[in-house]
Amino acid sequence: MRLPREVKALGMVSLLMDTSSELIHSLLPVFMASTLGAGMVTIGVVEGIAEAGASATRVASGLASDRIRRRKSFLLAGYGLAAISKPLVPLATSIIWIALARFVDRMGKGIRGAPRDALIADITPPAMRGAAYGLRQGLDSFGALLGPLLAIAFMVWFDNNLRAVLWVAVLPAWLAVGWLLLGVREPERPRQAPGPRLLLADVRSLDRHYWVVVALCATITLARFSEAFLVLRAENVGLELGYVPVVMIVLNIAYSAAAYPAGRAADRWSRRRIILVGLGVLIVADLILALANSPGEVMLGTFCWGLHLALTQGFLSKLVADTAPLELRGTAFGISSLVNAAALLGASILAGLLWDVAGPAATFAAGGAFALAASVGVLALGGNAAQD
């Protein structure tokens, strides 16, 4: 049995947009710190608010896509907003511009995220959902690998002119919108009236297994703050400015290579086993990053961080899809994303505060402690969606 063509097409759209986003993301922490003079707490706040504020749109877009039983229009709106945000970054003259650009970009992600994940669940047989989410995540991560590679190449070409390199990100973002518009068609469905009016009160029909999954996702997110701190850690131990994008390259080599095999494993292995392995890899990553004294050690920790993402992200999407009813699938993904974003906001602000007060080692040690606590919680769970 093969994965649906639409899953592969959505993966290509993700690849193009993530090429653009990660080209920017691999340079943005340094751009904020060196060009705009932002401190570590400010960077943490910008990253966290961008994710948390925008993710509220995931609930609304997921709810609306369940209501009208169509997903593609939300994808077009979301990817379109992300494309519009890209020129704002090289035009920025203050941190407020960056906050606005990040907010618009992440709002676009919020609008498209839940309907896209729900669409994948709609068109993929349950026995292949792990592979489907793994493939999309893998292509998304391959784009996240291409972005920093382009950043390095153009940093050399433009002699470390950050603003000039950031302009390069505009093209793949608009190519992604074009690919979605022309290459992705929503499956034909019988003509029918819109579904029953769905309100947030309807979340009461989501059962206990779903809420256990949401709690699990949030706990793991608390242990994994913004990847901007990986970039800053590399610079902190002496990596030259022109090679800072290598951090995101290493991260996404691990993520893109392992995401699809991990997704296939999620269709076969016990749930508890995958969660514990993923958290164990994150603990190792945090320990390496806390103790790092050289760029090479940071790269090793970053590689382990990417393996953790590959093991957990597609798998957690599969859990949400498996525990949500068809009529509330978009809503379920939206709520899960909102809760995760709130956890990310707290984790990113805490990471910035710890960095400023106690140093980078304390930041990553705290992440490892959260991951260890999540592992203990998983071992203590019984008779729920996270069990074997």
Notes on the protein architecture:
With 388 residues, the protein is mostly helical. It has a single domain (5-185, 204-380), classed as Up-down Bundle (Growth Hormone, Chain: A). It is built from 15 helices and no strands. The chain has helices at residues 5-35, 40-68, 72-85, 88-91, 95-123, 129-157, 162-167, 170-183, 208-222, 228-236, 246-266, 271-291, 295-323, 329-358, 360-380. α3 runs antiparallel to α8 (170-183), α9 (208-222) runs parallel beside α14 (329-358) and α10 (228-236) runs antiparallel to α13 (295-323). The radius of gyration is 20 Å and the shape is globular.
- The total of beta strands comes to 0
- Under CATH, the topology can be stated as Growth Hormone, Chain: A
Compressed to H and E, one letter per element, the order equals: HHHHHHHHHHHHHHH
**Main beta-sheet annotation:** none
- Proportion of helical residues: over 70%
Uncertain spans: 190-194
Count of the domains? 1
Coarse structural class: mainly alpha
Beta strand %: under 5%
Supply the number of helical segments: 15
Name the CATH homologous superfamily.
MFS general substrate transporter like domains
Task: Supply the CATH architecture.
Answer: Up-down Bundle
Q: Judging from the principal axes of the Cα atoms, what is the shape?
A: globular
State the separation between the terminal residues, measured CA to CA: 25 Å
Using only C-alpha atoms, the radius of gyration works out to 20 Å
User: At the first level of CATH, what is the class?
Assistant: Mainly Alpha
The mean pLDDT is: 82
